[in-house]
């Protein structure tokens, strides 16, 4: 990416954010965001990545309140004990726990899945929520650019390693569900297949948007694979809106100042930001339905290229190579 494209990416990200904030403000003036009414979900198990903070914390809390067994997968072990106790006390649900998983390390993800599988419990909901935004150019343990490696590839591997358990846990009429938390920034994202790691010219804005675009392509391709296999698992994308969390620590100082002064009014609260994830995780309206982009609990169109089947397939194949996963695409669609 040239310096000019990097500057353009930054402007487009801020413009996309401003458009969402404006829409949220209008909605607040017209009555705000209402919590979806959802039925209790006893005996169901969920994993929420990044569930110690922000939207993930609220998602984990709401799922626990519905009676689910919630496993928070995260890298913030220091905070985990307090968070788990807080959710248990607030929801009166003891089945909340933390398992360490550093999504910036393929080895850590594999170890997490091993530990989870040792529990011999089902998995009905996987919320791929964790993320970083606009961090300076850094690499994951495996040498991937951090946005691409953590936000996207980490969740790609995690999901693929958990799919067998999810297929066993879902049943016709009661599907297991995979969700990926994307963002409006995907609309201005570009997937640079020749330089997915942004090594030529790094733009933190472009890299974040690309990782969120990759998640959408991933969920759509996964949904097609699952449907072709007749698996009782669905895959959808959720967009939380612009939410008042710590995600913004690396953005331009002016944006941080606006957030500090007016975030309470312009931004969604973490609870409001979590509602689309919680809705997509449990609503009967989405039973058996996948391949959707959900915003404010409603289906909406994602960027046109996300529906490009060749691009979905190409990204999937490259991601399999990068994470050491066997690509089942050919077998599934040919047989
Ligand atoms: N806040 C927003 O306005 C907004 C808008 C659109 C999309 N999102 C998306 O929502 C998701 C949640 O973000 P948030 O706003 O709650 O941010 P946050 O910073 O409050 O939470 C991010 C979580 O990800 C976890 N995480 C970071 N690196 C990790 C790693 N290496 N391994 C495991 N976990 C790791 C953190 O520990 C934290 O729990 C992100 O995917 C973000 O891109 C947020």
TrEMBL record:
Subcellular location, principal: other
Function: Oxidoreductase that plays a key role in early steps of protein N-linked glycosylation by mediating two non-consecutive steps in dolichol biosynthesis. Acts both as a NAD(+)-dependent dehydrogenase and as a NADPH-dependent reductase during the conversion of polyprenol into dolichol. First catalyzes the NAD(+)-dependent dehydrogenation of polyprenol into polyprenal; polyprenal is then reduced into dolichal by SRD5A3. It then catalyzes the NADPH-dependent reduction of dolichal into dolichol. May also acts as a positive regulator of starvation-induced autophagy.
Protein name: Polyprenol dehydrogenase
E.C. number: 1.1.1.441
Biological-process GO terms, alphabetical: positive regulation of autophagy
Name of one Pfam family that matches: adh_short
PANTHER family: DEHYDROGENASE_REDUCTASE SDR FAMILY MEMBER ON CHROMOSOME X (PTHR24320:SF264), RETINOL DEHYDROGENASE (PTHR24320)
InterPro entries: NAD(P)-bd_dom_sf, Sc_DH/Rdtase_CS, SDR_fam
Localization, UniProt: Lipid droplet; Secreted
Pathway field: Protein modification; protein glycosylation
GO MF annotation, one: oxidoreductase activity
Organism, as annotated: Zalophus californianus (California sealion)
Family according to the record: Belongs to the short-chain dehydrogenases/reductases (SDR) family.
Keywords attached to this entry: Lipid droplet, NAD, NADP, Oxidoreductase, Secreted
Keyword Secreted: yes
Reaction catalyzed: a di-trans,poly-cis-polyprenol + NADP(+) = a di-trans,poly-cis-polyprenal + NADPH + H(+); a di-trans,poly-cis-polyprenol + NAD(+) = a di-trans,poly-cis-polyprenal + NADH + H(+); a di-trans,poly-cis-dolichol + NAD(+) = a di-trans,poly-cis-dolichal + NADH + H(+); a di-trans,poly-cis-dolichol + NADP(+) = a di-trans,poly-cis-dolichal + NADPH + H(+)
A cellular-component GO term for this protein: extracellular region
Source taxon at top rank: Eukaryota
């Amino acid at each position: 990416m040239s310096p000019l494209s990097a500057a353009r990416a930054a402007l487009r990200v801020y413009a996309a954010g401003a458009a969402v904030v404006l829409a949220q403000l209008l909605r607040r003036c017209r009555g705000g965001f209402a919590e979806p009414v959802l039925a209790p979900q006893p005996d169901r198990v969920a994993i929420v990545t990044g569930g110690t903070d922000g939207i993930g914390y609220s998602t984990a809390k709401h799922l626990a309140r519905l009676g689910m067994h919630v496993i928070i997968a995260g890298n913030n072990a220091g905070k985990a004990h307090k968070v788990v106790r807080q959710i248990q006390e607030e929801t009166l649900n003891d089945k909340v726990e933390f398992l360490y998983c550093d999504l910036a390390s393929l080895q850590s993800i594999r170890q997490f899945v091993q530990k989870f599988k040792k529990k011999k419990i089902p998995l009905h909901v996987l919320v791929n929520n964790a993320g970083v935004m606009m961090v300076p150019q850094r690499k994951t343990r495996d040498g991937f650019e951090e946005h691409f490696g953590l936000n996207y590839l980490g969740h790609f591997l995690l999901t693929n390693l958990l799919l067998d358990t999810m297929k066993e846990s879902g049943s016709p009429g009661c599907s297991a569900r995979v969700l990926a938390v994307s963002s409006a920034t995907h609309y201005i994202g570009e997937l640079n297949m020749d330089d997915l790691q942004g090594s030529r010219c790094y733009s933190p804005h472009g890299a974040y948007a690309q990782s969120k675009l990759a998640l959408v392509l991933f969920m759509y391709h996964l949904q097609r694979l699952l449907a072709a296999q007749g698996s009782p698992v669905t895959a959808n994308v959720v967009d939380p809106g612009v939410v008042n969390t710590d995600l913004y620590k690396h953005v331009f100082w002016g944006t941080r100042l606006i957030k500090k002064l007016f975030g309470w009014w312009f931004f969604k609260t973490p609870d409001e930001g979590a509602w689309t994830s919680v809705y997509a995780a449990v609503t009967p309206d989405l039973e058996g339905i996948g391949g959707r982009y959900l915003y404010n609990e409603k289906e909406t169109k994602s960027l046109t290229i996300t529906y490009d089947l060749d691009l979905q397939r190409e990204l999937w194949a490259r991601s399999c190579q990068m994470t050491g996963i066997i690509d089942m695409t050919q077998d599934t669609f040919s047989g």
